[in-house]
Amino acid sequence: MKKVSVAVLIIYAFTLHISAVAQKKELQGEISLSGAFALYPMAVKWAEEFKKVHPKVRIDISGGGAGKGMTDALAKVVDLGMVSREIYESEIKKGALAISVVKDAVVPTVNSTNPNIAEIRKVGLKKSVAEKLWSNEIKTWGQILGTSSKVPVHVFTRSDACGAAETWAAWFGKKQEDLGGTAVFGDPGVASAVQKDKVAIGLNNIAYVYDQKTKKPYDGLAVIPLDVNNNGKIDPEEDFYRDINTLMQAIADGKFPSPPARDLYFVSNGAPKNEVVKEFLRFVLTEGQKYVTEVGYVALSQSTINKQLKWLDTVQSR
Q1: Mean pLDDT, residues 92-120 taken together
Q2: What is the pLDDT of residues 20-47, one digit of tens each?
Q3: 60-99 in b/e burial notation, b at 16+ Cβ within 10 A?
Q4: pLDDT above 80 for 1
Q5: In which band, very low, low, confident or very high, does the pLDDT at 311 lie, cut at 50, 70 and 90?
Q6: Is residue 155 scored above 60 in pLDDT?
Q7: How confident is the model at residue 318 (pLDDT cuts 50, 70, 90)?
Q8: What CA–CA distances, in Å, run from 277 to 31, 79, 152?
Q9: Residues 111 and 220 sit within 8 Å (Cβ to Cβ)
Q10: How far apart are CA 158 and CA 141, in angstroms?
Q11: Which of 75, 259, 282, 293 is 20–30 Å from 300 (CA)?
Q12: For 220, how many CA atoms within 13 A lie in the half-sphere containing its CB?
């Protein structure tokens, strides 16, 4: 009986120790993020899953565009800015530290009831034509497709400083401020404008084009395939837009050009000091990557993940 009592006491003491360790390690605090619409749905998913493990952590996320994310991060208004473009040297000099967290792409979108939709899917969009479109040099769908169609084209771009427009412009050697067309705020705004206009063409991050339930484009939206080899038609190896899984695989395989494919970043002003933020970044680069395809993005390669984790260790030890 005495031996049993001793054993019970040992087990009880061990249980108390484990409980104390768990309580000590339980994260508490807040994380704030703002910025790119491109990264917003993914950040929301990561926050939901992270809070399942750490329920005492509060995470606030707001959109507003990549420019806002960078501005807020540098001003230390938020812990992490969401940025969907490459980081400028001037921003790095101001203290911006960026970490790749996922990949996606910008695609040209049209209304699915466009009167030329069949020809659009056959011919696609050349880089040189895209440059002229967003420079206001092309006025009709016939000029885009090389046909006699006099149907006008209504070009939409973004009004907010954003990674989507910057990345799209970079495909044909321009910057966001060079883009012409009707300027609309945010990814949802451009998608909605295209859905309402049968002769529209716009640009969107893929998370705002494809329905995550059906994996197909949202009602009223279609993607113009990119004529990557510039031969005036969409070849079978260029035709990977029918669903989001096929497109993501093409991005991962390098069949879709970069830009407009690109890495997405979390940006901080200097190395993060907050333990909660550090743990969240580690979660994003490890456990969080398994949710990426579910939300409609392309996961980082393992070599990139390892590089980012090593980089994270380096900057946090400074």
Answers
A1: 96
A2: 334 446 889 999 999 999 999 999 999 9
A3: ebebbbbbbbbbbbbeeebbbbbbbbbeeeebeeeebbbb
A4: no
A5: confident
A6: yes
A7: low
A8: 6, 7, 49
A9: yes
A10: 21
A11: 75
A12: 13
Locus of tokens 């990674």: 163
Residue with tokens 């939409």: 156
What's the start-to-end Cα distance of the chain, in Å? 56
User: Among all chains, which residue has been given the structure tokens 């749905």?
Assistant: 41
Structure tokens at 37: 């619409």
- How much of the chain exceeds pLDDT 70, in percent? 91
**Contact (CB, 8 A) for 33 and 43:** yes
Q: Give me the amino acid identity at 186.
A: G
3-state per-residue secondary structure call for the chain: CHHHHHHHHHHHHHHHHHHHHHHHHCCCEEEEEEECCCCHHHHHHHHHHHHHHCCCEEEEEECCCHHHHHHHHHCCCCCEEEECCCCCHHHHHCCEEEEEEEEEEEEEEEECCCCCHHHHHHHCECHHHHHHHCCCCCCEHHHHHCCCCCCECEEEEECCCCHHHHHHHHHCCCCHHHCCCEEECHHHHHHHHHHHCCCEEEEEEHHHCECCCCCCECCCEEECCECCCCCCCCCHHHCCCCCHHHHHHHHHCCCCCCCCEEEEEEEEECCCCCHHHHHHHHHHHCHHHHHHHHHCCECCCHHHHHHHHHHHHHHHCC
Tokens coding 210: 């494809």
